[in-house]
Write a structure and sequence with these properties.
The chain is an alpha/beta fold. The protein has a domain of about 70 residues. The chain is built from nine helices and ten strands. It has a six-stranded mixed beta sheet, with helices on both faces. Helix 3 crosses helix 4, helix 3 packs parallel to helix 5 and helix 5 runs parallel beside helix 6. It is globular, with a radius of gyration of 18 Å. Bound molecules: adenosine-5'-diphosphate (ADP) and magnesium ion.
Amino acid sequence: MTAPVPSAVGSSLLRVSGLRKSFGEHVVLDDLDLEVPEHGCVVLIGASGSGKSTLLRAIDLLEDVDDGSIELRGVDVADPWVDADAARARMGMVFQAYNLFGHMSVLDNVTLAPRLVHGRDRAEAEDAAVEMLTRVGLADKIRAYPDQLSGGQQQRAAIARALVNDPELLLLDEVTSALDPELVGEVLELLAELRREGMTMLIATHEMAFARDVADQVCFLHEGRVHESGTPAQVLGDPQETRTREFLARLH
Ligand code: ADP
Ligand code: MG
């Protein structure tokens, strides 16, 4: 008889297996495997060009892949037969450049997807948007336009936009890299709070102190593969692979 499976351990919300992606001759994702447990926080680190953004874009189905699977709760959403829009609607993604629409108020930026993608009516979408903007500390900026906000406020608005549809998975691609140093903290604090609330997250970042604080697991990407992974203490504090050590040494 087999032992019962412990149920306290979060099952895989996301399981990426054998992912391959080339741009022409250039192999960018090379048989990559990765798992994010439900309520888990996995942080991707690695040199520029190691494939972090391509991986996040592939998971969000913004990038076709050549081979492999991307399972969301056991269903391969990279399968061409799967409705990509429906799968994408279950994920929220935030990019390095906030990508807010400059000609729309903050409120309209946040209600756009609920109305267009999720078919909610305006009043319902606005209620949800106001709630989410309040949660990210922008209750007083609802009617403002992006150019009236600081970079940190714009990025918090972009996070509100990604959260408003209640995603099962939040994908964050170097969301503090474009910010002035004094604005980084407020965005990282918001992410740490989301993490405490149990949001499942996959985060590419160069902020190692943040990774150490929030990650359950750190994955070091090198040449399109997860070269080393483990707890922050293992990967950041006691890396086993030469490439990982070299990467971390270059940051200091
Ligand atoms: P990272 O986010 O870790 O810096 P990326 O995923 O952005 O890495 O890029 C990985 C590699 O893929 C880089 O060499 C980059 O030049 C290449 N790449 C990314 N997107 C494209 C594209 N659309 N066309 C051609 N090459 C690309
Ligand atoms: Mg990138």
